[in-house]
Amino acid sequence: MKYTFIFYIAVIINTMTLYVPCSADPSTIEFAWDLHGVLFWPNKRKIINTIGRYGLTTIRVSSQAAQQHISHRWGNPKGPILNLISHAQELSKQGATTELYIHDVALIDQELADFIRTAASHQKLNPEMVILVQELHNLGYVQRVASNIGTSFYADLQQVYPHFFSMFTAGKTVDYKQIYNDIIQKPNKKFFQEFIAKYNPYQKKKIIFIDDRIENILSARACGIEAIHFTNQADLRSQLRSLSIPLKPKVSFKDKRHVLLARR
Question: Entry's SUPFAM superfamilies (predicted)?
Fold first, then answer.
């Protein structure tokens, strides 16, 4: 009876293991990340400090020509001129880069352009997402950036957060100097087609793209990319686990020590 019981237990355990899903092989999957709204947040404290350092008088458009220039080419910012920062970022979401906007402002008012660039570049990491990216890195998954961020802004972020970006390999950003006549940014399908052509030309891997804007998600899916609409870290973690990515069920207090590695 004793040995019969042990035999049945062994059979049950063996049967259970047959239903444990296999982990997704890192050699068959790559991740493509949006930056702003997913991995990074605006650093409001530093933005406020920048406003204080430049002074409200400097921040105002100092010449009528600059105001007319901004209005003619880009439209009017909503509300006070302080909203130039958010206006520039919103233009980026609509298909024009913040860098191109700043470049055009600089043609008329360099000091104002310097302010916008400095303030708009103040970004901080989403701590829980740092942990998730670190987990994927430790598991051996390739991670790339797939963002509308300008090339020089991206270079600035890499200098501020070198450890974090050491977990990424080459990705896709936007060079404003090349898009005066042909803006190729999300949600333009050509953005994703170029990404695939460069990093997955033979369709040997599944690309999992993560973005907080639904129009980008739909465009990526139309190009055959597995795309996840980001709302929060917990939901993303759950969705990735459902795809057999062997992440931990949730972030523990102990895990948060990893965040310190990615800070300045």
Answer: HAD-like
Give the range among 17-26, 55-64, 188-197, 210-219 with minimum mean pLDDT: 55-64
The predicted model scores a pTM of 0.78
Name residue 203's amino acid.
Q
Strand, helix or coil at 63?
Answer: coil
Residues 192 and 106 in one domain: no
- The answer on pLDDT for 88 being more than 80 is no
Residue 263 has pLDDT above 80, yes or no: no
Looking at the structure, tell me whether residues 225 and 134 fall in a common domain.
yes
Tokens at residue 200, please? 């997955």
Locate the DSSP E strands across the chain: 29-33, 40-42, 123-125, 142-150, 172-174, 206-211, 226-229
Of 123, 145, 136, 121, the residue nearest 209 (C-alpha):
145
Domains in the chain, number: 2
Q: Output phi, psi for 42, to 5 deg.
A: -65, 135
Alpha carbon of 71 to those of 75, 81, 105, 171, 203: distances in Å? 4, 12, 11, 33, 44
CB 183, CB 99: distance < 8 Å: no
Mean pLDDT of the chain: 79
- Which residue, among 138, 160, 166, 134, has the nearest Cα to 257 in the 3D structure? 134
DSSP notation for 189-234: HHHHHHHHHHH-TT--SEEEEEES-HHHHHHHHHTT-EEEE-S-HH
Question: Which residues are bridge partners to 146 per DSSP?
Answer: 172
Residue 150 is predicted with a pLDDT of 84
Quick one: pLDDT at residue 251? Answer: 81
Question: Could you give the 3-state DSSP secondary structure of residue 77?
Answer: coil
Do both 248 and 169 map to the same domain? yes
